[in-house]
Amino acid sequence: PKSIDSFPSARNNNWFLLTIGCRRGITFLEHQAEVDENRIGVFGHSMGGGGSMHLAAEYPNIWASIAVVAPALYGNASRLAPAKDIPAYVVQGDQDRLVSVRATRLWVERMKQLKMKHEYVEVKNGGHVFLAWQHFDGIFEFFANNPKQASSED
């Protein structure tokens, strides 16, 4: 297995390694002249959706907006608090057999409590896979309409 430390360590897990890889990619993008730092968004489907929300909370100053489709979001929704100033677009099928619509609704409810700007699209009879590309137009429009804003803590 891939690891960073040769001894038991919190850094020897897939989420940590994925986060480091993503952060390196963002650092690269931030140094490209053609990249507008006020329009860097994060998108993910399924496990990538959960990872996108994790990255938004872990590095809230990077992202202009977040979009997730059928996000595998588990655990305490209070983890979302650091990302409260980032607009979010969430798509979830109500018949998804892999990601519970109830779990996604809990996270969307937390967005409401945080007064987070968000759009929630719940697709009637929607499953898990086809949603990933059926909502790209809405996602890209959301990204276009939500450049980075000054944080409420700035």
Summarize the entry for a quick read:
The chain has helices at about 15-30, 45-60, 100-115, 130-135, 135-145; strands spanning about 40-45, 65-70, 90-95, 120-125. By secondary structure, the protein is an alpha/beta fold.
How would you sum up this structure, described in words?
- This protein is of the alpha/beta class and 154 residues long.
- Helices cover 36% and strands 14% of the residues.
- The chain contains five helices and four strands, in the order αβαββαβαα.
- The protein has helices at residues 14-30, 47-58, 101-113, 131-134, 136-145; strands at residues 41-45, 65-69, 88-93, 118-123.
- It has a four-stranded parallel beta sheet with strand order 1-2-3-4, with helices on both faces.
- β1, α2 (47-58) and β2 (65-69) form a beta-alpha-beta unit.
- It is globular and about 45 Å long.
- The relative contact order is 0.15.
- The mean pLDDT is 89.
Annotation, overall tally of beta strands? 4
User: What is the quaternary state of this protein?
Assistant: single chain
Number of helices: 5
Outline the biggest β-sheet.
4 strands, parallel
Q: Mean of the pLDDT scores?
A: 89
Specify the helix fraction band.
Answer: 25-40%
Element string (H = helix, E = strand): HEHEEHEHH
What is the global morphology? Answer: globular
Cα radius of gyration in angstroms: 16 Å
Poorly predicted sequence stretches spanning 5 or more consecutive residues: none
How far apart the termini lie comes to 42 Å
Instruction: Decide which structural class fits the backbone.
Output: alpha/beta
Q: Strand sequence of the main sheet, in spatial order?
A: 1-2-3-4
Strand content: 5-15%
